[in-house]
Amino acid sequence: MAKVAGNAFKTNIKNSANTQVISFGGKVLALFEAGLPYRLDPETLETLGEDTMGGILPKGKLPVKMSCGVPEEYTPSFIGGAAHTAHPNICPDTGNLVGWHWSQLVDKKSLEATFTEWSP
Prior knowledge:
By secondary structure, the chain is mainly beta. Helix content is 5%, strand content 34%. Strands 5, 6, 7, 8 and 9 form a five-stranded mixed beta sheet that branches. The longest helix has 6 residues, at 2-7. It is globular and about 45 Å long. The N and C termini lie far apart (48 Å).
């Protein structure tokens, strides 16, 4: 129980971006199931940082949301993000990247999933 209590408020979860690497729309992205994609330099593979997929995914926030109408001023600043799937697919008809991102809805004990389609 002490281990659980000691880690209850640990929010510095490392995004290892170690599940899949894809090339799409002129970007090389390293993917992880519980965080944002990381953009890599296509020539050197240097890490360039988190990619918000065109500003759709919030940067620097955990994929956790409160859905019960808690006023924003009482919501911790480190929650409210989303995590992008590490297993998107390219549509053979359109060439678009098809995937989804998710957030945990803590108060409802459920997940919010949003399906996405990105054009190159």
